[in-house]
Amino acid sequence: MAKTRRVFQILFLCFFIFLFIRARYPYEVGLGSDLFLRFSPLIPLFDLVSNLQISAILWPALIILALTPFIGRFFCGWICPLGTTLDITSKVVKSPDNRKSVDVSKWRPVKFGLLLGLIVLGIFSVPIWGIFDPLSIMNRALTVVFYPLSTLLAENTFRGLSSISFLEGPVFAAYDWFKMVLMPEEQAHLQQVAWIALFFGGILSLELVTRRFWCRNLCPAGALLGFLSQFRFYERLVGDACPQCGKCQRECKMDAIPQDDARETSKVECIECFNCGETCPPKIQAITYRWRWKPYRSVVDFHRRGFLNATVGGFAAIGLVSIGIDNRKDTSVLIRPPGSMPENEFLDRCIRCMECVRICGSNGRCLQPGNVQGDIQHLWTPVAVMRAGYCEYNCNLCGAVCPTEAILPLTLEDKKQTPMGLAYFSKDLCIPYARNEDCIVCEEHCPTVEKAIQFDEKEYVAPDGTTRIVKYPYVVRDRCIGCGICEFKCPLPGDPGIFVTSENEERLEQLPAVS
Amino acid sequence: MRRRHFIKYAGMSLLGISLAPYSKILQAQTSPEAVWVENGEPEQLLLAALNAFGGLNTFISRGDVVVIKPNIAWDRAPELAATTNPDLVAALVKQCLDAGAKEVKLFDRTCNSARRCYRSSQIEAKAKDAGADVELVRDFRFRDLRIAEGEEIKEWPVYPDYLEADKTINVPIAKVHSMSQVTLGLKNLMGVMGGERGSLHNHFATKLIDIDRELLPTLTIIDAYRVLEHNGPVGGNVNDVRQARTLIMSACVATADRLALDLFGIPVVQVGHIKEAYARGINKFDFDNLNLKKITLS
C-alpha cells in the first residue's frame, strides 16, 4: 500500500504541475487548469460560511469532503501536492523521526484554532483563509517563485550554450521547443516574490523540526478533514503479535500513533500513508487495515480553552482589519481583472491561488499578487499593475481559469465591453503637453473599436518664433475600458504620462445574459 | 588598320552610340523600377508583379538566406487589415523557396503579446506551411548597430538575423497612422528594431530615417489587398477597411512608399518620414522620372 501511495502522490503532483503549465495562451479545450484547485476542501466550507451557499462548480472538493468521514484524511496523504512536496523535502533534509525530534504534539491544536479563527473571520466577511489553503500555497509558490526561477535558469543555460558557435542552431531549436511547451514568450516578473518565497520556504523548512510539521500542526484543510474523519470506517488494527517495538510510532509521518501505545491510532491525525504497515517487521506483520461498521472514535485534540482562544483571536483579527487605513489612493490603484465580482464578493471568493496571475503571464502580464494595501485582505489577490504589463484586448483567460469564479468566465465579446478602469492623462509629464512635441504612442496602441484616445491638432508657437502642428491626446471616457496598454507603452522612463485608475470599473454579480 | 576596317568600326560605333538611349529604354521596358498591380487576389497580384520584374530571381540568387519582414505587430485577424495578408506572405515564401533560397526566415517584433500576434494574424501557420522558419523575436539577441551618419540616433539595437541575411524582403500592409500619417515600408522596418521604440516617436522622421538608411531591404512589397483607412495602425473595426486589391513592388522602399500614398490620397509633403527619405537621398530611383509599370488584372 505504501508503494501504491507513493506512486499516486507523484502522479498527482505531476498532474498538478501539468495543469499549472497548461494555464497559458493558447488555452484550448480539454481539462480546465483550475480543476485541481477546486479539489481544495476549504473552498466549499468558506463558500458556505461567507456566501451561505455551496456552488456546484466545487464538485471536486465536495467529493473529497463526502468521502473523508468514511475513509479519513486520504487527501492529505495521497493527493495534496503540498503534502507530497513536504514528503520530498523531508527526504532531502533528512527530517528526524518521532523519537529524535522535539515533541511538537502540543502544537497540534493550532491548526484547529487557525481554522476556527478563519471561520470567524469568514462569517464577518474578512476572508483571508486563502493565504493558508494548501493548494493555493502550492500554486502561488509555483507561479511566483519556481516558474520564474526555472525560466531564468533555462534561458541563461540556453543563452550560454548558444554562444558556442557550432551549437547555436540546435540549441535555439531546443530553446524554441522548450518555449513552446514550457515557458511563455517573455517571463512575467512578479512583485511579492520575497514574501511568497519566505512563506513557502518557511513551511518547507519546518520539515527540519519534524516530518509534515505543517500538516500536523498548522494546515486548516488538514484540520477540517481531521475533524470529519474522527469516526472513519477504515481502520488500522494492530494484532496481538505486536511486541510494541515502537518502529511504527517512530516512523509515523503524522505522529498519529501514541508513543505509549502502538495499538492506538488517532483517526484525526492519520493520513493513511501506510508507512506503519510497511515498517512493521516482516516476521511480525501485526498491522492490518480494514473496514469496520462499528468504528471507534478518535478525540479531536481541541478543547474549550483552544476554542475560546481561537474565537477571541478571530474577533481580534476582525478588529485589526477593520481599523486599517481607508486610503482612497490605494483603492484607486486596486484594479481588478475584467469580470471580477463586486469587491466584497470578490474577496470572499478569491482563494489567492494566483492562477489568473499565472495565465496572465503568457499574455499582457498586468496581473500581480497584491500588496498589503491598508489591510491584509488584499494580500496576494490579483491586481493589475499597468506599468508592468497591460490587459490584452483579445484575452479573457483570467476568468477562464479562476477556480471559484471570483473572476467570471466572460466571453471575449463581453470582456471587451467590461471596463476595468479609466485612463487619465498626466499633462505635466505627457510629451505633447510637456514639450509640445508629437508622441501619440498611447493613441497608436489603443485597441477599442472606436478609439478611446483621440487627439486635437493645434499649432504651437515655439520661443524662437517657429510654429509647428502638435497632436494633443485626450481620453474619451465612455470608450475607455482601462486595459492599460497606453500606460504600459508610454515611452517616458518612470511615471507614465497616462495612467489607469479603477474609476469607471464595472463589476459583475453574474455572467451577462447571452445576447 | 585598313581604311575599310576603320570605316566599318567607326560606323558600327556611331550606330551603337546613337542606339544607346534606345537600349536603355529597351532595358527599362523589360525591367521596371516599380510595379503597381491591381484587381487580383493576393497570390495573383504577387505573381503578376514578379513577372513584370522577370521573376524573383532578379532579386534572389540560389542558396541565399532570405528574411521576410511582414507586419505582424498586432493581435488582429487578417480581415481587420492591421497585419500583412497571410496568403500573400505564404505565396512569397513559396516563391523564395522556388527561386532557390536556402532558408526563408520570418519574424517581427510585435506590439501585442508575440504569440497572440503570430497566431491571430494567421501568418505563423500559413508561412510555416509554405516552408518558412517562423521565429519569435528573442529580446536578448538584438545587437547594437552603429549609425555613423545618424543625425539624432547614433546607435540602435537591431535584430541580427536581418543584418546577416543575404536578401531581405519588406512586406508591409498599407495603413494610415495617427502619428506618421501612413505606415508602409519605411515604418515597417521598425519591426527589426529593438529597444524602446516609443522613444522614436518624437522627431520621428529624422530618427526613423537615421536607422532605416542602414536597413534598406532588397525588395519592398506593399500589401494593399486590404487597406486600413482610419484608426491606424491598430484598427479593429471592419468599417475602416477598404478592399483595394492592390500590390506595389519596388527594389526601393522609399519609391514604393511614395507610390502607395496614392492609395490614401495623401500628398507626400504631409508625410514627414517619406519626405525625409527623399531629402536624405536614400531613394534608389528618381521619382519624377520613375519607370513605373501599372498592371490591371482582369
What does this structure look like?
- With 515 residues, chain A is mainly alpha-helical.
- Helix content of chain A is 43%, strand content 8%.
- Chain A is built from 22 helices and eight strands.
- Chain A has helices at 2-22, 42-51, 59-71, 74-79, 81-93, 109-123, 134-162, 168-181, 193-205, 213-217, 220-228, 247-251, 275-279, 304-322, 328-332, 343-349, 355-360, 397-401, 412-416, 431-435, 441-445, 485-489; strands at 234-238, 287-291, 367-369, 382-384, 422-425, 453-461, 467-475, 498-501.
- A two-stranded antiparallel sheet of chain A has the order 1-2.
- In chain A, strand 6 (453-461) and strand 7 form a beta hairpin.
- The longest helix of chain A has 29 residues, at 134-162.
- Chain A is elongated.
- Chain B is α/β, with parallel strands linked by helices.
- Helices cover 35% and strands 21% of the residues of chain B.
- Chain B has ten helices and twelve strands.
- In chain B, the strands form two sheets. In chain B, strands 1, 2, 3, 4, 7, 8, 9, 10, 11 and 12 form a ten-stranded mixed β-sheet that branches. Chain B has a two-stranded antiparallel sheet with strand order 5-6.
- In chain B, helix 3 packs parallel to helix 5 (123-130) and helix 8 (204-212) packs across helix 10.
- The longest helix of chain B is centred in the first third of the chain and has 28 residues, at 3-30.
- The radius of gyration of chain B is 21 Å and the shape is globular.
- The interface between A and B is medium-sized, with 37 and 28 residues.
